[in-house]
Amino acid sequence: MLAIPSVTLPRLRHGHAGQFGPEPVLDQAGNVLVGATALIMEEDGVTPVTIYADRDRTAIADNPIPVGQAGKVRFFANPGVHVLRIVHQGVTVQETTIVVPVDPEDALRQPEVALLADDFGCVPDGRFLERASIEAGSAVLIDNDGTLRAADVGKSIAIPGAADLVATIAGLLEQKDVARASMNAGGNILTASFGDLDREGFRASIHQGQRITVVGAGPQGTPLVTDVVRVVNATTLELLGPASTTVTDAKAILNDPTRVRLSDYARRSVEGVTIDLGDRTINDGSMTVGASEEGLASQTARFSFPDLDKRVTIRAAGLLVTSVESFESPTRVTLAAPAERTVEEGQADIWNTDSRPGLERLLASLKERDVEAVEIRFGPGVYDFTRTPAPSRVEGAISLHNLKNLTIRGSGVGATVLRLMPHQDLGNGLHTHVIETQDCANLTLRDLSVHGAYLTMGKVNEQMHGILLNPGSQEIVVERVRVFQTAGDGIRFVGEPPKLVRKVLVDGCRFIQNKRTGVMFQRGAEHVWVRNCYIEMTPPSTDACIDFEPSPGSHPGPADIVIDSNLMVHGNATVAVSLSGIPPAMQSGVDPARRIKFSNNIVFGGPVFCSDVDQLTVQNNVVVVTALPARRRPIIRIPLEVQRGGNSVLIAGNILVNEEVADPSVVKSEAVISLNEVNQRPVKQAMVTGNLCFAGSGSGIQLRSCVDVAVEGNMVVATGSCTQGIFVRSQSSNVDNVSIRNNDVTVEAPGSWTSGIFLGATLPHEIHHVSVVGNAITGATIGIEFVGEGFRQTPLCALNRMGAAVTNPLDGLGLLPQTSIVVGGAASHGGSGAGTGAGRSLVGHGGPEGKVPGNAGDIYQRVDTQAGPRLFVKESDAQPTTGWVAK
Fold first, then answer.
1. By three-state DSSP, how is residue 719 classified?
2. Which element (helix H / strand E) includes 364?
């Protein structure tokens, strides 16, 4: 019998099949067993092996194999350990473990080896319970999935929500500090002096209704704590309560009265909690699981600066940490300490062994192996990893540095879990990632789960990511990997010139409830493909599903990124997807995100936001923006927005839905698609075509200060009371070369439009060349509306079909140049010389003579209410505006 080597060769990884034999087949007496058969099986002794006719695998041979007259067995199979069973006259006479060798040609290539992590001291003795229950005051834990084992006795366990959360009020939200505030005793007017660092001052949209503390303005020089009733102007506030003491150049602090940040975060969502604040008690306290920045909320608390550093207890929002004392059955154990609060079918983590030292031994051994590639295999179970002891520059529990041709493989998503060991103190800036790579090439992660243990961790910081691809990581494949509840991003790309993160494929992965972002492009990333993934950002998540957030400095913006065929479920108040480059404010010279394709995705719950992009394609997606509860101030949400420097943009074939409800506390809708200039940087060279837009309120498609934009072949549907189907305005700079053609503006009961197509030329900014042709408008009061005095070219407006309910098909002709529009002809204008006309037809108010420039042969139709001739023909080219003859 041949010995099994300690380092085995994975199947189907070699260019050729290996040859076994010829080997004699003998009975115990040494006689040749002519007429016997040889059955070759996998190492398990059950599964038949595929046998090939030759080393090149050109054909599959029979298995079992008849033993020939020479009494020898010979076959070709994939290299590795197999079982050879000899059967003679219906009886198994021999069963032997054999090794099919590697083909000599392949052996010269130093093939890949596979190493088992367990052989080096990694131990999968953790548990992740998804449906754990425990009663308040009881130590009996029930696991409805039956995954508990007798070996769990003595291990640690953490149960979110089974204890109270005790924390301090660590910060105010929407805080504004005023260094020099003045008030007179008995008066309720506060005046402030702001320096160059705060030129904005007070804003009604932010500061009206806020809580304010004015140091020294209360009785006997105590703080005055009251409310902001009205923002008079940028330097003056009207307060609810008067000052008792006159103060000059005093400190004042404004803040959101409904929310404060705590020193710890909720491990379970709670509502209607009674909380003692020392000088008052509230009964409507609430926390969302995982929330830290917006930790504690209350509509009645009236939080203010004096509340800082108060100690509070939030019932059932904390973490119970104890150990397993005894085992009764796979569904029942007894803990060393009882629960403070009841948990029904919640999460729980059980842990014991740190697998980091074992994996470090394995990685260190790679230097001694003369092989081209290595596969590290993790078996089923939960492997826990601690952080490298501080101080250490290594930030990964699993750190992969300066490696190439490495595969880390689990036994399947959910079967193998690589977890950051729970209940570690990783606060105070201890950046800790489950897996981090640096200067690695040809690295593959597949068939496993990565858990950040966010809800069972002791202390955290936001730089705790599931998979961190650091500078120099290239030719990376992440496939069939689940990243769950990290304190930072699910996967994060961080390159550093000249070492970019490049050539990365993320395929078939699941990024679920990671605190910060599902997929984060921080900087220096190019040639990345994210496809076929499920990304869920529901609590404890607080940020985007996909976020391009390039850092300032010399780092290049993201480039050549494909995001295709993903499903995203978004459940917080941020945007679901942010595709952005580097704006000029961050560095000398803008560096936009280049060649970005966002296609075939489904985004449910949040909008897609794009800025500083060049050559962007948003195509064939479904985006549904739901009406989530807003913060103190309503949030404007637009399913698809491109602003601030969008260039060469294609928006095509998308279904975009803006849900709307009547409750004003929820997010409100401005538009379904918006192309918007910000900071004098318009969107230009853009096509918006073939989209199906559903608007609950606001506009359908809006263009604000855009240049070279075509809006064509879209259907815009009002499902509620809406304003404009297509909206164009010269808001902060000029509009030029905009075409609106062949769109359908319609309604779905009870929807309505104020106007189907709106063009607003708001001085001092102007609208130049625009055309509105071939559109169909129903359900609107006004069909096509021209507003403002900034039109500088006669618009082309023709062949637009109006529904019967459109009572005013065309409004605002009197505001246009020459009070007219071009409705027909070979071109929108003729030439400057005789005989260069385009045979135009125009419609306008008042007669054209001396007012409307034209060419001989042009026709003018007057549609105003004044008496006089209605039809005019330009009979002469002698002067541009004369020669019009009434007919």
1. coil
2. helix 356-365
Question: pLDDT, tens digit, for every residue of 832-877?
Answer: 888 888 888 999 999 999 999 999 999 999 988 889 899 999 899 8
The answer on pLDDT for 208 being more than 90 is yes
pLDDT at 3 over 50: no
Residue 513 corresponds to which tokens in the numbers above? 């409830």
Place of tokens 């496809």: 531
Please name the residue ranges forming H helices in 198-263.
204-207
What pLDDT digit, counting tens, does each position of 244-258 carry? Answer: 999 999 999 999 999
Other CB atoms within 10 Å distance of the CB of residue 393: 6
Task: Give the β-pairing of 140-143 and 127-134.
Answer: antiparallel
Residue 89's pLDDT band, with cuts at 50, 70 and 90, is: confident
End-to-end CA distance of the chain: 112
Instruction: Report the distance separating Cα 407 and Cα 597, nearest Å.
Output: 28
Three-state SS for 816? coil
Cα–Cα distance measured from residue 479 to residue 493, given in angstroms and rounded to the nearest whole number:
16
Q: pLDDT tens digit string along 820-836?
A: 889 898 888 888 888 88
**Cβ atoms 859, 843 nearer than 8 A:** no
> What residue spans of 155-287 are helical by DSSP H?
204-207
Under 8 Å between Cβ of 858 and 871? no
Please state the separation of Cα 547 from the chain's center in Å: 5
Give the tokens for residue 398: 């699993």
Contact 542, 516 (CB under 8 A): yes
Q: Are 150 and 320 in contact (CB under 8 A)?
A: no
What are the residues facing 332 on neighbouring strands?
142, 329
